[in-house]
Recover the amino acids of this structure.
């Protein structure tokens, strides 16, 4: 009987021991999963550090594509050189774009990464639209640019106006020229005053003075212009700021001066 009791007592202890071991097994598995996640995160961080380190994966080549005729090559090379051998993945493309856009005669700029380790820069040549009376030029996007030491093409119109009005004047010039071209009239200068008055000089005269509704009043004047075209060179100025008409200022003849 004692032997049987001892056996039953041992079996009971073994069952209790097995029940108490189960939570410990679950804890071990949970710790293993946490350790695996921490290890994976650490490996990812180390991998990212290896990829993004400044001295790793350097840019090996830069290719510039576009119309480069007027663009000074030495200045273009100097703008690009600082970005060679920087990290291909972390290189700020906006900084490359800004540096290239600062080269004279460079217009639009687009920068792309080209695997494995190259940069491709697409360059559009700057196209000038007008000479800015206060210095510099206006390009075909309405931006104000400076080109010290570089002479623009001849025959560009002259724009004048408050600071920051370059784009507005360029847009207005396009609308005015579209109205005047069918009549054989060409704009040579556009002046916008601080009060919003537009003055437009035409090749061969006269000068047009326009109010805020410039295009509407110009269109009205052009309906009667064919009747006045023969005397155009005698006109000094045409003031179109009137609600129901316009006023013509005539040139003083040499006979009247005597």
């Amino acid at each position: 009987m004692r032997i049987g009791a001892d056996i039953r007592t041992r079996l009971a202890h073994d069952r209790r021991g097995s029940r108490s071991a189960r939570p410990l097994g679950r804890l071990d598995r949970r710790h293993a999963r946490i350790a695996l996640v921490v290890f994976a995160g650490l490996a990812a961080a180390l991998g990212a550090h290896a990829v993004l380190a400044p001295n790793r994966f350097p840019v090996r080549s830069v290719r510039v594509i576009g119309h480069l005729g007027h663009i000074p090559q030495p200045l273009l090379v100097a703008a690009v050189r600082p970005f060679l051998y920087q990290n291909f993945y972390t290189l700020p493309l906006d900084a490359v774009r800004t540096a290239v856009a600062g080269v004279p005669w460079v217009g639009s700029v687009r920068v792309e990464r080209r695997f494995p380790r190259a940069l491709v820069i697409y360059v559009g040549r700057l196209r000038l639209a007008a000479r800015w009376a206060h210095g510099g030029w206006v390009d075909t996007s309405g931006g104000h640019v400076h080109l010290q030491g570089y002479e623009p093409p001849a025959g560009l119109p002259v724009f004048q106006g408050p600071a920051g009005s370059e784009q507005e004047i360029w847009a207005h010039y396009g609308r005015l020229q579209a109205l005047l071209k069918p009549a054989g009239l060409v704009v040579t200068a556009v002046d916008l005053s601080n009060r919003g008055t537009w003055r437009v000089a035409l090749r061969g005269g006269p000068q047009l003075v326009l109010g805020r509704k410039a295009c509407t009043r110009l269109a009205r004047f052009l309906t009667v212009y064919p009747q006045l075209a023969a005397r155009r060179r005698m006109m000094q100025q045409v003031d179109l700021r009137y609600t129901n008409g316009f006023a013509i200022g005539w040139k003083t003849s040499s006979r009247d001066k005597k």
In short: The longest helix spans residues 2-52. Confidence is low (pLDDT under 50) at residues 1-5, 42-53, 254-258.
